[in-house]
Amino acid sequence: xxxxxxxxxxxxxxxxxxxxxxxxxxxxxxxxxxxxxxxxxxxxxxxxxxxxxxxxxxxxxxxxxxxxxxxxxxxxxxxxxxxxxxxxxxxxxxxxxxxxxxxxxxxxxxxxxxxxxxxxxxxxxxxxxxxxxxxxxxxxxxxxxxxxxxxxxxxxxxxxxxxxxxxxxxxxxxxxxxxxxxxxxxxxxxxxxxxxxxxxxxxxxxxxxxxxxxxxxxxxxxxxxxxxxxxxxxxxxxxxxxxxxxxxxxxxxxxxxxxxxxxxxxxxxxxxxxxxxxxxxxxxxxxxxxxxxxxxxxxxxxxxxxxxxxxxx
Length: 313
Ligand SMILES: Cc1cc2nc3c(=O)[nH]c(=O)nc-3n(C[C@H](O)[C@H](O)[C@H](O)COP(=O)(O)OP(=O)(O)OC[C@H]3O[C@@H](n4cnc5c(N)ncnc54)[C@H](O)[C@@H]3O)c2cc1C
Description:
Mean pLDDT: 96
Number of helices: 9
Number of strands: 15
Structural class: alpha/beta
Strand content: 25-35%
Radius of gyration: 21 Å
Largest sheet: 7 strands, parallel
Strand order of the largest sheet: 5-9-4-1-2-3-10
Bound molecules: flavin-adenine dinucleotide
Shape: elongated
Low-confidence stretches: none
């Protein structure tokens, strides 16, 4: 039997949906018994949400003032102290998990299995390599703990309705004091969250300026969609970094992805390959984006978008 510890991602009040997707991956391992660890200053509300997830046996809370902010250097020793009772420790392959899980793996002296996209057996997994242009099958040693991050775009969230036991875990670990959070800043937006939105409209370098990017926001608002961008658009200063989609940005899996003035570089495509339907608007009919698009429109975005936005009025 595999005993799997899933590390909850949360903001102190709400469990991030990445946790339910990580549980879905863990549950695809045969004979898995799954616990969730909630590290927080006050774990109550998040633990209650975690206990509702299907396939979860126990929710372990680890509460202390140092856990107020999710600082990898502080959370990792506590997780490593818990890990001895488990065969696997999984976290989501989000910014949170990508920061935290290597610390855990290093403390346990094991290699991390990153970006698990499917489970072949308890110690064999598939993961994307070369920006998603190839898939590697990797095998972790059977005699040590498997520390892994789960590619959340590859899994649907497990459903709710469970009522797993919630227990306070007794953890003793030396916590470093060399790292602290000075300030947390996040963009305020009424639009759907890019990472969980069912529809996303994204713009590329072709928009040409921050002002012109307004066309993307207008179309997104008509469709109640989230907004994304390429790295070129971010680097040019049209939009903030948190909107970048792709290998070094966010990996997303919306039902509908509309790529406007985006060439379709492999590093961008790797962020959207699990999208349901991809629509592309590009003036170059040879643009690589059309190779992955389900629906393509060869057009100048500056004439096509205003027409489209007007038609949706
Ligand atoms: C290590 C590494 C990591 C990277 N990570 C990422 C990442 O996470 N995300 C990412 O996006 N990129 C990433 N990149 C960059 C990536 O390689 C591309 O450079 C980038 O995606 C290109 O962005 P773009 O499509 O907006 O720009 P371009 O490639 O310049 O494409 C612009 C497109 O707009 C079209 N166009 C121009 N004018 C119009 C018009 N008026 N109407 C309609 N279409 C028009 C053009 O035909 C062209 O196809 C990474 C690169 C590296 C090396």
